[in-house]
Specification:
The chain is of the alpha/beta class. The chain is built from nine helices and twelve strands.
Length: 322
């Protein structure tokens, strides 16, 4: 292969992590810069390009790089823009793919982080060979990437696949989501949602729990998992509720694309069977009969610390076709 590498950029609200990746999914070199502090996006691109120069040279220079993929909040695959991302300094529509392409002289593609994770899973992970699957990313929110007939679903405007904002609770007590709606899936099944469930349960359930030794403002999903692993009944129920809620939601998601698999990625998946077993049971109990036994429920095959860069880099192999 005359150009054996691609660049991947995981662009977060705090840090931007870059990696050079080969066709086997091996990260050959990495670098990072702070995302914030650049009021002008052109200054950010220039700082990134300067940080990239040394690692690009280690693999033989820019002529060995086929393309670049970017996973970013509100990244739009169709336009190449970041569209009004709430946690970034640059407001409005930012043509980030074009800016990087003009500066580095290589093709650049962009999408949101959940879609990038799906492409990464299909290229390097447990979804290799699959044509129909749904990627669910569990973090601060709940993201999703939907692959149908081997292609990521972007919809008419590039923003299809926001399954984290499907309303699963219409009751008056439904949780308010950051998107402004009430009862969204991510208010229950994200890492943040797990913490909300824990605080509510501790407030209304008098049973003893290891979680009572932690300041309510400092409880994390990881602390809930650790307590469950030590046999804590309340913590186990919190994770079971999370898995059950997610399993029911996935039984509905299956209706529109009949996926081969659901693949779950993110911090809460570290709870393992504490979440996955209730998830599987709820999915199987609620799935429409014609879909029973069809979809696998899998954990991501990508290394957690590398997954975002790998996912973004997977877009780089296709960037030249845009």
């Amino acid at each position: 292969m005359d150009k054996p590498y691609v660049l991947g950029l995981d662009l977060g609200g705090t840090n931007s992590v870059f990696g050079i990746v080969d066709a086997r999914g091996e990260i050959k070199a990495t670098t990072a810069i702070k995302t914030g502090g650049y009021a002008d996006v052109n200054d950010y691109v220039e700082a990134a390009a300067q940080a990239l120069e040394p690692i690009i040279e280690t693999v033989g220079g820019i002529d060995t790089i086929r393309g670049m993929g970017i996973g970013a909040p509100n990244g739009n695959y169709y336009t190449g823009n970041i569209e009004s991302a709430a946690n970034l300094e640059w407001k409005g529509s930012v043509p980030l793919a074009k800016l990087f392409s003009d500066r580095l002289k290589i093709p650049v593609s962009i999408t949101n982080d959940a879609n990038a994770a799906a492409v990464g899973e299909m290229t390097y992970g447990v979804a290799r060979g699959m044509k129909n699957f749904i990627m669910i990313t569990l973090g601060t929110g709940v993201g999703s990437g939907i692959v149908v007939n081997g292609q990521l679903v972007y919809g008419s405007d590039g923003f299809a696949g926001e399954l984290g904002h499907v309303v699963i609770d219409n009751s008056p007590e439904a949780r308010v989501c950051g998107c402004g709606r009430k009862g969204c899936l991510e208010t229950y099944c994200s890492a943040t949602g797990i913490v909300r469930t824990a605080r509510e349960k501790l407030l209304h359930d008098p049973r003893p729990s290891l979680l009572r030794d932690i300041n309510p403002d400092e409880i994390t999903g990881l602390e809930v998992t650790k307590a469950a692993q030590k046999g804590d009944e309340l913590a186990t129920e919190i994770l079971a509720f999370t898995g059950e809620t997610l399993g029911k939601a996935c039984s509905n998601f299956a209706l529109f694309s009949s996926p081969e698999a659901f693949i779950f990625f993110g911090g809460p998946t570290k709870a393992g069977d504490f979440i996955m077993e209730p998830l599987r049971k709820a999915y199987n109990d609620n799935i429409l009969y014609i879909y029973k036994g069809q979809a696998k429920l899998l954990l991501s095959g990508l290394n957690g610390s590398d997954a975002a860069v790998l996912g973004a880099s997977a877009l780089g192999w296709e960037a030249e076709k845009l």
